[in-house]
Design a protein that fits this description.
It is a single chain. The chain has 340 residues and is of the alpha/beta class. It folds into three domains: 3-106, ATPase, nucleotide binding domain (Nucleotidyltransferase, domain 5), CATH 3.30.420.40; 117-207; 212-329, no CATH class. Helix content is 57%, strand content 14%. Strand 1 (3-9) and strand 2 (13-20) form a beta hairpin. 30% of the residues are buried.
Length: 340
Amino acid sequence: MGEYIGLDVSLKETAVSIRREGKRLWRGKCASDPQLLAALIRKHAREVVRVVFETGPLSVWFFHALSAEGLPAICIDARHAKAALDMAANKTDANDADGLAHLAEVGFYKEVRVKGFDSMLARTLVAARTRLVRIGTELSNQIRGLMKTFGLVVPPASGSKFERQVEALLAGNADLGRIIRPLLEAWHAVRLRAAELGRKLLADARRSDACQLLMSIPGVGVLTATSFITAIEDPTNFKRSRSVGAWVGLTTRRYQSGEIDYDGHISRRGDSHLRGLLYEAATVLLVRSRSECDLRKWGLQLRERLGFKRAAVAVARKLAVIMHAMLVTGEPFQETRTSA
């Protein structure tokens, strides 16, 4: 019998527990460095079967680094592990590591697919640009709110027109200008950096055949296509395209117990950012797109019966299914079923 190891990872230290044949062999702590942990594991365990740790901010780095060290690293879902770890009388890092080692030994866990560094790099680019855009919006709203207090109402505008309107209103108020102009300069700098990241994102999408394929769908742009590809990574990770809708959290939850059986709201599990982008793409398809594709017609029929929000969620789920099927087959989006 080999050894089963549980790691409770934190930012500075990692609690380690090693078990064999139902008994704990060793327990201790080590700095949160995969190389140091690999050396410690080799010192106390001769035949490592599994090294288990939960999902978290360091899970991608730990998984790839420990795998490079030749250790059988396994990342498990923290939500599933929490139910078992809560059985301990005292909540400590050492007890959590013991619980993870026990889960590794009995095999009662749900393994999580860890993304590669290339996918994480693209996702970081999308997240950084999105954050800068939000910061720019917050700064512009702050400028509008502060100026409104003094009776200076900035008309609805964006971009350089917004900047000119603010400067025009501040022309006769030097005291207020000394307060608002630093915010305006920060807004301008954030906007420039967001545009730089946006151009890089667009250039990467133009070089990607998969992104170009998904962008043939009405309403799907660079952000949605890139986020979907980096989240899915390999289309063969899903046996059926229908499973993608549930994976993103766009299917209804069900509760059944005895004579009670009802469906609730969508589960909202998985990647919340991707789910929001799919909902946004569905909204564009239903509201702004002029395409006469079958998907839009189906969504408009649902809107008449169920309302706009439910129809948009249904179209978003179907978009996820269609996009995965397109990645599998390599075929572009078909406007109608007859042409397909």
